[in-house]
Design a protein that fits this description.
- By secondary structure, the chain is α+β, with helices and mostly antiparallel strands.
- The protein contains 19 helices and 18 strands.
- It has a 6-stranded antiparallel β-sheet with strand order 9-8-13-12-11-10. A 5-stranded mixed β-sheet has the order 2-7-6-5-4, covered by helices on one side. A 5-stranded mixed β-sheet has the order 15-16-14-17-18, sandwiched between helices.
- Helix 1 (about 5-10) crosses helix 3 (about 90-125) and helix 16 (about 450-460) packs across helix 18.
Length: about 525
């Protein structure tokens, strides 16, 4: 517990004589003047009448005194160039200053106890919500924790607020309303208390009640706000200290949002995370917020989502991968989200994701033991979340198909993804053309390969020459097989619907071949 001497000077007010060569000196306690004292500690405030100063002292250095002038000051004090000295002319002023100093030390004791309690919660790995609940009990007013883009992360006591339309909107939608963004910079009024509460910002006109916003900074960058609504009782200087302390703890506790990446733009990253969590879905609001944080993007956009091949959580590796992708893609729009690294990759034209660029991206991913999926191109920022879902579905589909490419593209898996999604509610076997089922059974019983012959022929648009080359067989051999297939199944290759059903059957068989083989004889 310590205060500096400048705070004691504030307690003394204007009606005293001041000699303060060291206002920044820390004071940890107080003591009464006694004639028998022979030494004065530099971190203690000594108070009492001048008449109680020890007699015969030849030198005093680094002392701190608050004196009632009941007699003339000794020359030894006046001659010192290192003693802090406050001299009161009246007993009333002296007593008032003593009471003020007691209050300052009482605040400091409470602040220290509060800090120690929050520190213990961190040590016990307690969550952010528990810290907010403890702060709500100490501060006595509702609290919101929002990130740099003003998305609501956690809150305590806000559900008790009544007749605050903007609070209701925030709790319902998970973000502060758009009109708030128009006022926050104009309305803030900074208050400083000896440098201690520089994090504190007062906001007074937007809500019906005043609000204090504590800025949460990491590496000198804003990553969020701790907002306290002055709803139940006035916010005192003590509560401002509590808020300031919480901001410093949260700058550590919220580390998982930004990791150890001091080069990131917290406002952009929190905005993108908010989109991924669907905290904003309105396209116009999304565009408006992007403009407010100066997020300028090319018209064509992709989402690239990277994940580790081995499924385990390793935060350090995730943030290392994030940095490498930011450097490789030369984009700041890269975030960590749900154990993946998600990049919003904007390009001037769709040729930017050429085979060569995919190859170089694959090299970065392979070096980290990762794979990635690329979404379809999109233009509206509001489609960011939908495109992210595409990439997650693409990764899952590629895994189910046993594909081993490091980078896969959703456009290559649209049909497979559709069938896998359909399989959750329907048996895919029912979509396989009867001719294919018959050939599967025939291949199994006669050890032939008519099913693959059929599919290869359809893939090459009924071109016998191209299909024979792909199968590495003679033209006449393939022609004989096609004729046998027609004899066995009666399939009409010239019918468009039949051809479409055969293509679907080919896709489904690639997804669930083992299941269909097992049920081919049914």
């Amino acid at each position: 517990m310590a205060i500096d001497f400048s705070q004691i000077v504030e307690c003394a007010g204007s009606r005293c004589r001041k000699i303060v060569p060291a206002p920044e000196r820390n004071i940890v306690g107080c003591d009464d003047l006694r004639p028998e004292l022979s030494h004065f500690a530099s971190d203690c405030l000594y108070s009492g009448p001048v008449s109680r100063l020890p007699k015969g002292l030849e030198h005093i250095s680094d002392g701190n005194f608050m004196l009632l002038a009941d007699e003339a000051l000794p020359q030894v004090l006046l001659a010192s160039h290192s003693c802090n000295l406050l001299v009161m002319e009246t007993k009333a002023d002296y007593d008032a200053c003593i009471e003020n100093i007691k209050r300052v030390f009482d605040i400091q004791i409470r602040v220290n106890n509060f800090s120690y309690g929050i520190l213990n919660m961190c040590h016990e790995n307690r969550g952010v919500q528990e810290m907010l609940n403890a702060a709500y009990q100490a501060i006595g007013n509702p609290i919101m924790l929002v990130d740099a883009s003003l998305f609501l992360m956690k809150h305590a006591g806000m559900e008790t607020v009544r007749n605050e339309e903007q609070i209701d909107f925030t709790l319902t939608h998970g973000l502060l309303p758009e009109v708030y963004l128009n006022t926050i910079m104009a309305e803030e009024e900074r208050h400083s208390h000896g440098g201690e509460n520089e994090l504190i910002v007062w906001e007074s006109t937007f809500f019906q009640h005043r609000m204090v916003a504590g800025r949460i900074l990491k590496n000198g960058r804003l990553i969020g706000y701790l907002k306290v609504l002055e709803y139940n009782r006035p916010i005192t200087r003590l509560e401002e200290y509590y808020i300031s302390i919480l901001c410093k703890f949260f700058s550590i506790t919220l580390d998982e949002f930004y990791g150890a990446d001091p080069t990131g733009n917290p406002m952009v990253e929190s905005f993108l995370n908010g989109l991924l969590e669907q905290k904003i879905t309105d396209a116009d609001v999304i565009q408006s917020r992007a403009e407010r944080i100066d997020l300028e993007l090319y018209d064509t956009k992709y989402v690239i989502t990277a994940e580790f091949v081995e499924k385990y959580r390793n935060t350090d590796r995730l943030y290392l991968l994030k940095k490498q992708l930011k450097n490789h893609l030369n984009r700041s729009t890269v975030v960590v989200y749900q154990d993946t690294v998600v990049a919003l990759y904007d390009v001037k034209n769709m040729d930017a994701l050429s085979p060569d660029s995919i190859k170089s991206l694959s090299a970065v991913l392979e070096a980290n033991g990762c794979r990635a999926a690329v979404s379809m191109p999109f233009h509206r920022l509001g489609d960011f979340y939908k495109s992210y879902v595409q990439t997650r579905s693409c990764l899952l589909t590629a895994q189910k198909l046993g594909r081993t490419e490091t980078v896969v593209r959703y456009e290559d898996f649209i049909v497979e993804h559709m069938f896998l999604h359909f399989s959750d509610v329907f048996d895919l076997n029912d979509l396989v053309h009867p001719s294919v089922k018959l050939l599967l059974r025939h291949d199994k019983e006669k050890n032939t390969d008519f099913t693959e012959t059929l599919f290869c022929y359809v893939r090459h648009k009924n071109d016998i020459t191209a299909a024979a080359k792909a199968l590495n067989v003679h033209y006449n051999t393939l022609k004989y097989r096609i004729n046998r297939i027609v004899e066995l199944t009666g399939v009409d290759f010239d019918d468009e619907m039949t051809a479409f059903q055969l293509i679907i059957s080919d896709k489904i068989l690639g997804l669930v071949r083992s299941e269909l083989d097992g049920g081919a004889g049914e």
